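Reopening: structure tokens for the iron/sulfur cluster complex, inputs below.
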Amino acid sequence: GPLAHKTDSAEEAGTPPELAGVSAGAGEGSAVLLRRKRVLAELSPLERFRLRYLCVTDVCGQAWCELQVVYGFELPHVPKREEESPEVKAGASIHLARELEVHDVVSVSAQSREDRWALKILNMLSMLPILQAGGWVRELPVFGMLEGVFLVGVIDELHYSHKGELVLSELKTRGLRSLPGRAQERSHHFQVRLYKLLFDSMVRGLLERDAFVQSLNLRPEQPLGSGVMEHAQKLGLHVHTFGGVLELALMTLSYSELPAIDVLKIEYCHQGTSDAIGTREVSFDEAGVRAELRNHLSYWIGQREPRGVDIEEAWKCRSCSFEEHCEWRRERAENATASNRTKRFK
Ligand code: SF4
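Re-run output (same inputs, fresh job):
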């Protein structure tokens, strides 16, 4: 069926209401500065960046370098090296080509936050019958509360194997004709494991209305914009408000007989030729994944400071967009100079 595009990420970024009136203009007194610092310190990063949810890709980015993800929110104007790379562009076009094999992508205009969420939910709803009938789906939106934080992601592909197992397949494009190193692989594995956690809890009927209304602060009574309403009608769904879409989704999921995901796979392919490089099957241990997730989320809920890369993984900084801004890196360089100086004096 036709599939509406697309997701937004930090849609609610901006100045937190708590900081309104705390100006940062010229001639600002030190008391104001102090107050600003204190307010910032009291807010958790989720509140400070005004994020009501996190994207799975952000949480997985933390497995690569947490501080890099944080700088992505703090310094949104620094151009991203990885976004500009031909590898990423080629990856996006391979993804789209694959998606077009199974869906017509249509663009639907969204007029409100509720409209944007309704589109994600409608996309997901339009794919459930296909999966139920044993078909393939691509770009399936998944979301839900995990460990107290609302997470959102998009599963590249779901299909059934010849043995009847439900297989998740994640496509990764590579500039080199080789499989990724261990550090990158770790983050990829975590990504597909989180997708499984989200999908499984959705088909088990564990999504809750409150998560949308309270955590995401969406208004159920908000009427759908005309574009979204027409799109829903084309899918055979007669809904008029965001709450209507939500109820329908919760009901469909709680009556769905879809299985949990049985197999997690990552397919690596070459960016230039789209040739397959190799496929990796990923193990799953729910307690382990949840523990890793809690560790990442503890930064977002304000339990600890963000961390940069380990010293033995400092090579990651060479491809980082924030290399010149990074305090972690600067401190390390200063420590290294200080210890060199000490050595010289000895
Ligand atoms: Fe992380 Fe290194 Fe980038 Fe700093 S420079 S954000 S430590 S990857």
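Residues 55-83+294-328 form one domain. The two ends are 73 Å apart (CA to CA). Marking as resolved unless the reporter disagrees.
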